[in-house]
Amino acid sequence: MAVLSLSILCLGCSSMLNSLSQSISELNDQLAANLSNPPAPTPAPTPTPAQALSSRPQAFRSAVFKGTPYTVLPAGTDGSIGPKGSYVLFGDWPQSLKPVSVTVNEAIAAKVGGHTYYQGSDACWYIKIKTKYVSGYYSDGTRVKSNEVRYFKVEPIKWRVLTSNYNGSGKKLLLAESVLMNMAFNDQEMDQTELQLVDGTQMYFKLEKRFRQLENGSYIHHNNYEHSRIRAYLNGVPYIQADDDGGQRINEEFVSCGFLQTAFTPELQTRIATTTVDNSLNAAGPVKAYTGFHAKVYTGRLYYEYGENKKRVYFPGFICNNTQDKVFLLSEKEAIRSDYGFRKIDPKVNENNFMEYLKAGVDYKWEDLVTSYVGLPHPMTDFSIGNGVGHSAGRTTAFWFLRTPICFGYSQKGGIFYGEQETAAVSDLGDISRLGLKSTSNGVVPAICVK
Question: Of the residues 153, 176, 199, which one is the last residue of a structural domain?
């Protein structure tokens, strides 16, 4: 009986060993299959912006930034046109230099559009930048230095109400009271455009140098506002960028992080109306008249008087389509409207006495010739100064862009004129002037319509 039990036990062990051997063989086969066809790795989840911030190797705490709601300032508040103007606070932007007494805690930060703000010991928010050199001083009297880390206080934006019924829309048109930032109008500019006199009445452009091209084959001038870099930044949208090698690409660096998304929280953006921005010839300023050997393509029109013939020519080549925007630049025509609070003065030189100045050998200046109208000079903020906005020594104001395209021209023998593509602008003295397209030192004064 014991012998039988032992036999049965041995038979059981043999069965278990066979089963174990089979399992090991199957595992070896599976391992070999996995080595030859490894399974695809499971992708790591993309961290959210908040998770990315919280993963910093420092004690970091994300905080909520609350924007300044639309606030009407009391009657009698001073501003660009004095106490008779209407002013409001709305949205926020870095402006003044951090006081020496304030310390900034970078462990507490808020991501707002394209900016990151840090909390100061005064419970206000500050942005940190590395400065760019310009000859000048901050509002506290300290000199501007390049590559210097400085903090600037985020403050409510002050706007002037230009009209309460913009273009019959029933919306208020607001213009920022300061030069808030500086940037290029576009990535490229055409240094020279050839204008050829044809039969004494017409002109044409010789197409050359880095014109951008739309899908339909049409060309885009670099002072075209619709496709400009500056419009893309103001509204946080993509644009067509021209490269130095003649190529082009869709640039999306400002998408959802432009001025609109940075100056206004999502809740505040609902107060801003989408506006039909008039980019037609109707929005351009008055035609500028010149005599003798001077020509000007202004607002897309070439108007000139040549010798005694006084031939007049118009060229509509720079005018672009109307746009649908929440933030935009004023046109030249808007920047000279007396009902918007802009001034008008008599010029020192006009088309009637210009030839007398030439005959007398007077060394005339550009501002003597531009126009009989002036806008208003706008002060710079410390933040725009630190970012490199261009300005004359000793002045607290800067040039700022208008959306109106121009081409400043001068003549050569044989009736051929050469011109530079530019845009109209308001100078640091307040007169209507001009600016090149590619410089990043030009000032920006945004305009918006509110519901």
Answer: 176
pLDDT tens per residue, range 124-156: 999 999 998 766 789 888 888 889 999 999 999
Report residue 144 as tokens.
């501007």
H helix or E strand, kind and range, residue 263: helix 259-263
Kindly report whether the global pTM for this prediction surpasses the value 0.70.
yes
DSSP string computed for 371-421:
-SBB---EEBPHHHHHTT----TT-SEE-EEEEEEEEEEEE-GGGEEEEEE
Cα 88 to Cα 21, 172, 293: the distances in Å are: 85, 11, 47
Q: Which domain holds residue 295?
A: 181-445
Provide the domain count of the chain.
Answer: 2
3-class secondary structure, 101? coil
Question: Are 291 and 354 spatial neighbours (Cβ–Cβ below 8 Å)?
Answer: yes
295-342 pLDDT per residue, tens: 333 333 333 333 333 333 334 456 789 999 999 999 988 988 889 988
- Is residue 329 situated within a structural domain? yes
**How many whole angstroms separate alpha carbon 380 and alpha carbon 382?**
7
What percentage of the chain has pLDDT greater than the value 70?
61
